[in-house]
Amino acid sequence: xxxxxxxxxxxxxxxxxxxxxxxxxxxxxxxxxxxxxxxxxxxxxxxxxxxxxxxxxxxxxxxxxxxxxxxxxxxxxxxxxxxxxxxxxxxxxxxxxxxxxxxxxxxxxxxxxxxxxxxxxxxxxxxxxxxxxxxxxxxxxxxxxxxxxxxxxxxxxxxxxxxxxxxxxxxxxxxxxxxxxxxxxxxxxxxxxxxxxxxxxxxxxxxxxxxxxxxxxxxxxxxxxxxxxxxxxxxxxxxxxxxxxxxxxxxxxxxxxxxxxxxxxxxxx
Amino acid sequence: xxxxxxxxxxxxxxxxxxxxxxxxxxxxxxxxxxxxxxxxxxxxxxxxxxxxxxxxxxxxxxxxxxxxxxxxxxxxxxxxxxxxxxxxxxxxxxxxxxxxxxxxxxxxxxxxxxxxxxxxxxxxxxxxxxxxxxxxxxxxxxxxxxxxxxxxxxxxxxxxxxxxxxxxxxxxxxxxxxxxxxxxxxxxxxxxxxxxxxxxxxxxxxxxxxxxxxxxxxxxxxxxxxxxxxxxxxxxxxxxxxxxxxxxxxxxxxxxxxxxxxxxxxxxxxxxxxxxxxxxxxxxxxxxxxxxxxxxxxxxxxxxxxxxxxxxxxxxxxxxxxxxxxxxxxxxxxxxxxxxxxxxxxxxxxxxxxxxxxxxxxxxxxxxxxxxxxxxxxxxxxxxxxxxxxxxxxxxxxxxxxxxxxxxxxxxxxxxxxxxxxxxxxxxxxxxxxxxxxxxxxxxxxxxxxxxxxxxxxxxxxxxxxxxxxxxxxxxxxxxxxxxxxxxxxxxxxxxxxxxxxxxxxxxxxxxxxxxxxxxxxxxxxxxxxxxxxxxxxxxxxxxxxxxxxxx
Lengths: 269, 552
Hints:
The structure holds 2 protein chains of 2 kinds.
Chain A (H helix, E strand, L loop, with lengths): L1 E5 L6 E5 L6 E4 L4 H7 L6 H14 L1 H4 L22 H10 L13 H12 L14 H9 L24 H4 L2 H9 L1 H4 L6 E6 L4 E9 L3 E6 L4 E5 L3 E7 L11 H12 L6
Parallel strand pairs in A: 1-8
Antiparallel strand pairs in A: 2-3, 4-5, 4-8, 5-6, 6-7
Helix pairs in contact in A: 2-5, 6-10, 8-10
Chain B lengths: L1 H23 L4 H5 L20 E2 L12 E8 L11 E3 L2 E6 L3 E6 L5 E5 L19 E3 L2 E5 L4 E6 L5 E6 L14 E3 L2 E5 L10 E6 L5 E6 L29 E3 L4 E5 L21 E6 L5 E6 L15 E7 L2 E9 L4 E6 L5 E6 L6 E4 L5 E3 L22 E3 L4 E8 L3 E5 L13 E7 L19 H4 L1 E8 L4 E7 L8 E4 L3 E4 L5 E6 L5 E6 L9 E5 L2 E8 L2 E7 L2
Parallel strand pairs in B: 1-31
Antiparallel strand pairs in B: 2-37, 3-4, 4-5, 5-6, 7-8, 8-9, 9-10, 11-12, 12-13, 13-14, 15-16, 16-17, 17-18, 19-20, 20-21, 21-22, 23-24, 25-26, 26-29, 27-28, 29-30, 31-32, 32-33, 33-34, 35-36, 36-37
């Protein structure tokens, strides 16, 4: 078996793993170039830091230091009753909500930006707070100019060759979603690497690898068939680290809108 | 009436004969001493005092291994990594399950004779799961260490507890996860808790009474030699746990134990000095516990490189000289051969990528090359290998073990304050991975899907030549492996891995001869035994203990 692996290790990032659980946390400090590349797609660390003070003074009394003490809301995890976009959050904060249960707050612009950044960073002063736009505009972009539906499937519609995004908003952070759009090669997970397999009987299979062990590999091929192959029947096995999509050409506001839309995709509720 | 009396008399005589028979079922110290010459039984954790995990049984061969068939499965009723190693005595298997249950099992049918349950107290603290790695036997007794740091002696015939003593203070996070080791009239254990600021020790108890016979700390106290390898009061909570069963050389009367990491784990700068005897092997007088020599693999360790591997002993001709050696594939990525009479370093070579050190000096001391902050350290936190038992075959002259290739960690040391019984890590770490959000390797496997380990590390079974310190051959797997090894006199090597395959490999060539997918991670070594002329091989995969023998 000729086994060609085209994985570039230069893009290696860190995945933080707590020692005794498989709990995975992003460690972003090791990729300073990434933060620079993102420009105005995200809030600054200074804003997040400032936002933490605004939060403690104004919000923590009701929402709690971890943002989860109001029923049905978890600010740290991005679970809100009505809001989706940053504009929604601004509206709730400046006008109040819950028929008077939450008062309106008169914050200066930098305070408002800071507290939204702090919420979007998951209450982590070292985190990255991604700008999140309007999900309705995002959906239009997703289905139109963004060409996303050419490959992705949502709620039973669309092809299965790329990952099904029906619950992507529940399983990815905004930062990861944004990175997938801006720099898909850096965000490509092992499961989404395109594979090319040539079998002993000269069949060429293009697809995505679902599972693998020492002796077998399971893929979904370009015809959307689930295939299980024995490695001794394989003569060429290539795993590419080049994603099948290019970095998006959408503007930063449009990316924020698409991220906003993706975050609404939360699977079966 | 006379007849009835006569029948009773006959019955009493028969009972007397049975009682005599049950004394034959005793396991004597001499039997354990010569365990390898009694391959129908598996009498100690590592199959004998030299811990070679090599069996003289040869019924299963390269030619007939294809005819292995499943004879029985014992399903564990308690979920979690099943790291227990069975002991087999005269057709009865003694195996533990989580947290501290012991079962006596018919080794032919897999049916259970009795089960002893020990429920550890609620505030037991263990770093890495409710693990227990098995029992020891002597006479008519079975010995088990517990998560709440007790040692319990059971009646081997009915599972009834005979004595139960405290090994350590559970409130200070002492625990026992290892299988005890019986030497002569003593049963010996070590204590876990290296992530909780314990001060480790090896301790021996009288097998009859449970009375403490000796206790040797793995961190020397004030006035003792090498106390100055610690500063201030660091020694009081410096870890150096003992959680893997040691070995014994009866000629030298030395028992060897691998010692765990210093604490706090990842902040070496917080505890200046070599931190002896953390990450060392220590040689103790088996009668007194007196320290005779030590060899430290990783001084002032900041990478969690516990030396909790099994000391594998062999008498070999080493580079032309008959030698009593100890072979050791260490978590720090180096394979060592030591003179086990003196502890002298003979050879040490890296078996995986190593960048925390640029090599070993003539005494085997590593030349440190700490990586810049944020850069990966090879091997990673789980090590180039870990606690899984290796095997040495005197027939091939090779040492076999599971290595993790291409696995790295970025460490993040932080100042840690010692609080009794609380976690004492000194920071954290990250496993190197190719993409943010990508899955990586943790302790154990709970997911049937794996499409990433080729990018974060994978298993490589290595056959090491102690003459050169280098691998003669390797057998790679897609996932990493926590499986131990078993070799037999027919030059078969049995082993597994996280993928759940149980392999029979040619111990000379490394060629795969047979495999079966048992479906759950194999996180312990197989054992072999013989009953009624049939050789069995048992291995735990996931929550099932599967036993194979040749088709009739």
